[in-house]
UniProtKB/TrEMBL annotation:
Pfam families in the record: Phosphorylase
MF terms (GO), sorted A to Z: 1,4-alpha-oligoglucan phosphorylase activity
Record-given protein name: Alpha-1,4 glucan phosphorylase
Protein origin, superkingdom: Bacteria
UniProt signal peptide: none
InterPro entries for the chain: Glycg_phsphrylas, Glyco_trans_35, Pyridoxal_P_attach_site
């Protein structure tokens, strides 16, 4: 950078820093970051990765980019000297919530690691006008509001590049927007986002409702529109096709410009298909290659060599299958190709269950991915084993060499350096700065935990940082009118609301605790139980669970006898920005999905890195966390994935029997529709949830209830009676978190799948 920060800001705003508004300073910083990021672009030599994803949950970018450019401290000081605050200026920045949860956040962590490791890797996605809805809980139930992020000045810049795309036979133009992704002391890559010029934001009425028929006006209005009706599902296919068609044209154009003759495409591009949402890139690339004179069989081979697929779930509802006649309406030009791919797949195996098009005429996107890419990976060791042995066993037997595991990771720049600067500074004092680029160095912290007691002074410093972070969170909550006791244990469950993630299990524990306190059995330590979660707009039971938590929170708050010991807090509109405030302040991290159902989880890694202990099932990456930290430094409970898989296979699970057999469970479930709850909440929602738990309980909450109560109470007691031991175990978690750096994950993708060369 030329000149000091102050000189640059004066040049950009035309006045002294002290005279600028926060808005003016935000814009100046945005421009400064842009200039510096651009300076780090270099032409790509060799292969380039294209990570195609319907979601990029990027979060705010200002601080992140300043850190990665090495400008953060200087900017902060300069602003402070002029009486300004970077964190206040940051409030001006809207969060781009272009993702629902883990899948989209993972994509963003990956882009950060790619750029940090000097690997050429760009993202391809959609420029949704409104990200995930803003959640309003003021009426005691979730209400959805649009969440605009496209202000006049924003990180994603329009370009003159447009690609023609045919949607249901109608030609439209996809315009490319580019967002710079700068690595930590690394190169600048690009997140390419496509959009139409014809989108009409004024179509949005009453919350997030809009007319789904006028495709050209509404196509990219929202991330994942409600898919509970046909118009919604069609819209989603249109969105996906816009993304992959424009994306495929961009890839081919870039590769040709860099010298590819397309026959050698796989030497110029690696394409990662993030879940099944971008799967149509396979037939679309084949179509484009055929248009350029390449024969079908060779085109299939080129595409197979270029593309790889990541599976992120075994939940049936998340594995996309589209009826043939839906696809025919949206992408008639792909249907002959999909038909030929189905023939080809059937020629490779007699197993009909592996077909691309099943006997009911449904197109299985994941099946197309596995047949016509060279790699299929799961996202945690257990998840990949389940894919190989159960869910995708037929494919595994057909293509054993295609299957591989890539355990997820998180970028430590955002999830440590940015969100927990005090912890990062303490670590740097103890082991030096190298951990920022080589996370495995965190292991050196083990020396402070070695003795039975550990190094008392160091442990107390870590405990003090946690205490300070809890105070900071308490004061942030205080500004929102929520008062919590920072001396209490902070227990946090933040993630999308879904029955498989089992927020309802946590709810039942809290009701149980309420009864125990009423009976004079107070917990070992006061407990603040914090939730943050959005429910899909059409997911009724998920919304009922939110309502029940909110109602319980009211009931407890109104009862001084209980509220001295127990507080339930639901933070509205949970998003990346809020996660960055909550995670550093957490003592106990809730990772309580039904074993086998959470493919990996990545929040679990963020909490561990920030010195929380995990209370969790043997699911997803929890299994690997448990292996790394050892069983004494994590609270594991509940049925194993094998037990769960067998219980499903037997088909004889009966929730009602568990409800009737366990008086504590029965008492907790009945409380949902007891007089206290009904006085504070809505009977319709509470009754429905109660019936769901007794008569369905699809995610087997009841069998794990007892073990959960016992383990959680144990955690409370350990925290209360052995604080130093707790700090020591927290430090072990931090020291072992290095494995979960997304730099490690990206290194493995590159070694096994992409084969990119670092650009220096
Ligand atoms: C999503 O966020 C995930 C999987 C999906 O299939 C969809 Cl549609 C969205 C999550 C998994 O639930 C989570 O376990 C995993 O850590 C994350 O993807 C990233 O792999």
């Amino acid at each position: 950078m030329q000149g000091t920060i102050q000189q640059n800001l004066i040049e950009l705003t035309g006045k002294p820093v002290a005279d600028c508004t926060d808005q003016e300073l935000y814009l100046a910083l945005l421009n400064l970051v842009r200039r510096e990021s651009e300076a780090r672009r270099t032409p790509v030599s060799g292969k380039k990765l294209y990570y195609i994803s319907a979601e990029f949950l990027i979060g705010k970018l200002l601080s992140n980019n300043l850190i990665n450019l090495g400008l953060y401290d200087e900017v902060k000081t300069c602003l402070k000297e002029a009486g300004k605050s970077l964190s206040v200026i940051e409030e001006v920045e809207p969060e781009p919530s272009l993702g629902n949860g883990g899948l989209g956040r993972l994509a963003s962590c990956f882009l950060d690691s790619l750029a940090t490791m000097d690997l050429p890797g760009d993202g391809i996605g959609l420029r949704y006008h409104f990200g995930l809805f803003r959640q309003d809980l003021s009426q005691g139930v979730q209400q959805e509001q649009p969440d605009p992020w496209l202000t006049d000045h924003c990180w994603a810049e329009p370009t003159d590049t447009v690609f023609p795309v045919s949607l249901g036979g109608h030609p439209v133009n996809a315009r490319l927007y580019r967002l710079a992704v700068t690595g930590y002391e690394g190169r600048t890559n690009t997140l390419n986002l496509f959009d139409l010029d014809t989108i009409d934001e004024s179509m949005v009425t009453e919350g997030i409702r809009f007319d789904k028929t006028d495709i050209e006006k509404c196509l990219t209005l929202f991330l994942y529109p409600d898919d509970s009706d046909e118009a919604g599902r069609l819209l989603r296919i249109y969105q996906q096709y816009l993304m992959v068609s424009a994306g495929a044209q961009l890839i081919l154009a870039e590769c040709q410009e860099r010298g590819s003759n397309l026959h050698d495409l796989a030497d110029y591009a690696a394409i990662q298909i993030n879940d099944t949402h971008p799967s149509m890139v396979i037939p679309e690339l084949i179509r484009l290659l055929e248009e350029k004179g390449i024969g079908f069989e060779e085109a299939v081979q080129i595409v197979t060599d270029t593309c790889a697929y990541t599976n992120h779930t075994i939940l049936a509802e998340a594995l996309e299958t589209w009826p043939w006649n839906y696809l025919e309406k949206v992408v008639p030009q792909l249907m002959p190709i999909i038909g030929k791919l189905d023939d080809l797949a059937r020629s490779r195996t007699d197993d009909r269950s592996l077909a691309v098009v099943d006997d009911h005429g449904n197109v299985h996107m994941a099946h197309m991915d596995i047949h016509f890419t060279h790699s299929t990976n799961g996202v945690a060791a257990l998840h990949t084993e389940i894919l190989k042995n159960t869910e995708l066993n037929g494919f595994y037997r057909l293509y054993p060499d295609k299957f591989n595991n890539k355990t997820n990771g998180i970028t430590f720049r955002r999830w440590l350096l940015e969100c927990n600067p005090a912890l990062a500074a303490e670590i740097e004092t103890l082991i030096g700065p190298d951990f920022k680029k080589d996370a495995s160095r965190l292991e050196q912290l083990m020396q402070y935990t070695d003795a039975a007691e550990g190094d008392v002074v160091v442990l107390q410093q870590f405990a003090q940082i946690k205490a300070d972070n809890k105070k900071a969170l308490a004061s942030w909550l205080g500004e929102k009118g929520i008062r919590v006791d920072p001396e209490a244990m902070f227990d946090i469950q933040i993630k999308r609301l879904h029955e498989y993630k089992r927020q309802q299990l946590n709810l039942l524990y809290l009701i149980h605790q309420y009864f125990e306190i009423k009976a004079g059995h107070t917990p070992a330590v006061p407990l603040v139980s914090i939730f943050g979660a959005k429910a899909a707009p059409a997911y009724t039971i998920a919304k009922d669970i939110i309502h029940a938590i909110l109602t319980l929170s009211k009931v407890i708050a109104a009862d001084p006898e209980v509220s001295r010991w127990l507080q339930v807090v639901f933070v509205p509109n949970y998003n990346v920005t809020i996660a960055e405030k909550l995670i550093p302040a957490c003592d106990l991290s809730e990772q309580i999905s039904l074993a086998s159902k959470e493919a990996s989880g990545t929040g679990n890694m963020k909490f561990m890195l920030n010195g929380a202990l995990t209370l969790g099932t043997m699911d997803g990456a929890n299994v690997e966390i448990a292996e790394l930290v050892g069983k004494d430094n994590i609270y594991i409970f509940g049925a194993s994935s094998n037990q769960v898989i067998h219980r499903y296979a037997a088909g004889d699970y009966c929730a009602r029997e568990w409800y009737e057999a366990d008086p504590n469970l029965c008492r907790a479930i009945d409380f949902l529709t007891g007089p206290e709850m009904l006085a504070a909440g809505r009977s319709e929602n509470l009754e429905r949830l109660k019936n769901e738990l007794i008569y369905k309980d699809w995610f087997q909450t009841l069998p794990d209830f007892n073990a959960y109560v016992v383990r959680k109470d144990q955690a409370l007691a350990d925290y209360a009676f052995d604080p130093l031991g707790w700090s020591r175990r927290a430090l072990i978690n931090i020291a072992k978190a290095g494995y979960f750096s997304s730099d490690r994950t990206i290194g493995e993708y590159n070694r096994d799948i992409w084969h990119l060369t670092a650009q220096h």
